[in-house]
Design brief:
Blueprint (H helix, E strand, L loop, with lengths): L1 H8 L4 H10 L4 H11 L4 H13 L1 H19 L1 H35 L7 H10 L4 H24 L6
């Protein structure tokens, strides 16, 4: 995968390549920071470019998810039913914990560098649980900054993963 990614982004300067990698939902900064380090970038610039890149799509997700789901409700009933089932199931299973910890839950969900967590998923979670867009943007940015520190420390060998 590293070879495919590097060949895809080879034509870009390293900082831009890190931003683009961090914008991708499957990589986010968890993949962009190690990628930047593989490109020979220093830790701090890699961190800053990855955080920036990871945050670029978030306002769009936060502000467009509601209109897109409303459009799906009107025009794509099958997709609408699937999304409603998914959102309802998520609310049912996690609303108690989320309501108790609200802000901390969202920051932690974004900050923990595991698969299926991160800024993209955090933006969807904020939508599902009705967090205001501005508040969600701030909390997600905080989570991304924390995740970036964790991934940078692990990538630099300062910290280890269990």
């Amino acid at each position: 995968m590293t070879h495919r990614l590097t060949s895809f982004l080879d034509f870009l300067p390293p900082p831009v390549a890190v931003v683009v990698a961090a914008m991708l939902p499957l990589l986010e900064l968890r993949g962009a920071i190690p990628f930047g380090r593989l490109l020979g970038m220093a830790a701090m610039p890699t961190y800053l470019w990855a955080v920036l890149g990871n945050m670029i799509p978030i306002p769009f997700i936060l502000w467009w998810l509601e209109p897109v789901t409303a459009w799906a409700n009107r025009h794509l009933p099958v997709l609408s039913r699937m999304l409603e089932r998914l959102f309802s199931s998520t609310r049912r299973r996690h609303s108690g914990r989320f309501e108790r910890l609200r802000d901390l839950a969202l920051v932690t969900f974004v900050a923990i560098p595991l698969p299926v967590t991160g800024a993209w998923s955090g933006a969807v979670a904020a939508f599902v649980f009705g967090v205001s867009k501005r508040r969600a943007l701030t909390l997600i940015a905080l989570g991304v900054a924390i995740a970036g520190v964790v991934v940078s420390l692990v990538t630099s060998g300062v910290a280890t993963v269990l």
